[in-house]
Amino acid sequence: MGQLLLTLGRHNIRPSHLHIMIDAPGFHKLTTSLYPEGDVFLSSDAVFGVKRSLVVVSKRASAPFCIKNFASWTF
Fold first, then answer.
1. What is the DSSP letter of 70?
2. I need a labelling partner for 58 at 20 to 30 A (CA). Which of 3, 4, 48, 51 fits?
3. 69: which residues sit within 8 A by CB, 6+ positions away?
4. 33 near 49, Cβ under 8 Å?
């Protein structure tokens, strides 16, 4: 596979991204990815997964993010 990519002038690198799965009773589960703006590999993703609508501007939060009774982030 490496030789094929080299022959095509491509690489095997993915841009940084975050996988997200969201589900709630009565709704279909949503699985998606978000790509931080500014990654040098956004325009040449090895698996062509980047869509402009999935590219986001990230902001640092001043406090842990939590929406009461809805969602929480634990890392």
1. T
2. 48
3. none
4. yes
- Burial class of 36 by CB neighbour count within 10 A (0 to 12, 13 to 18, 19+): middle
Whole-model pTM?
0.69
Q: How many CA atoms lie within 13 A of 24 on its CB side?
A: 4
On the question of pLDDT at 39 being above 80, the answer is yes
Counting every residue written for the chain, the total comes to: 75
Task: Please state, in angstroms and rounded to a whole number, the distance separating the CA atoms of residues 75 and 63.
Answer: 14
Q: Which residues pair with 35 in a beta bridge?
A: 55
Q: CA-CA distance, 38 to 54, in Å (whole number)?
A: 13
